[in-house]
Amino acid sequence: MKNQLKFLLLLLGVSFFILPGCKKDRDLKRTATTFTLTGTNETKPGTLTGYFTASGDPTVSGTFIMDVAQTGDSLHCSQTLVSTKGSTTIISDCSLVTNTGAWYITTGTDAYSNLRGEGDLLMSFPENSLGIEALSGYTWRQ
């Protein structure tokens, strides 16, 4: 019984050192970030291209390609943003009813290989435009 109590206290003590460190690292590096994607061309049905700007982390601009899959009133999109420093892939899910949704970063290359992020988005469709997506949220480095 005494050994079991010692073992339980040891496990409890170790968890105080391990668990708080997991969340702390990510929260310390979070940066408010926005991406604005402007669609300029539909290369084939369900594939848009255009340009983007980003502020926060990263602060960069470049081009993107977006693959769009529609299911009812919902859109599931995969956007690959390309700049001179590398690329970032963002997955988003949107509602065509509210023009709102959520996004998260899945992968990146070169300068963005350890970039992750998430947030909300708002779609708009100005005249003579294929659409604009405003993504706002947070990014962090793993």
Shape verdict: globular
Largest sheet: 8 strands, antiparallel, barrel
Order of helices and strands: HEEEEEEEE
- Sheet/helix structural class: alpha+beta
Q: How many strand segments?
A: 8
CATH class: Mainly Beta
Mean pLDDT: 87
Hey, roughly how much beta strand do the residues contain? over 45%
The CATH architecture comes to Beta Barrel
Extract low-pLDDT stretches.
7-12, 14-19
Strand order in the largest sheet: 1-2-3-4-5-6-7-8
**Which fold name fills CATH's third level, the topology?**
AOC barrel-like
How much is the radius of gyration in Å? 20 Å
Written overview of the protein:
The termini are far apart. The protein has one domain (31-141): AOC barrel-like, CATH 2.40.350. The chain is built from one helix and eight strands. It is α+β, with helices and mostly antiparallel strands.
Which characteristics define this entry?
142 residues, eight-stranded antiparallel β-barrel, AOC barrel-like, alpha+beta
What is this structure's SSE topology?
Elements: H1 2-28, E1 31-44, E2 47-55, E3 60-71, E4 74-83, E5 86-95, E6 100-108, E7 115-124, E8 132-141
Antiparallel strand pairs: 1-2, 1-8, 2-3, 3-4, 4-5, 5-6, 6-7, 7-8
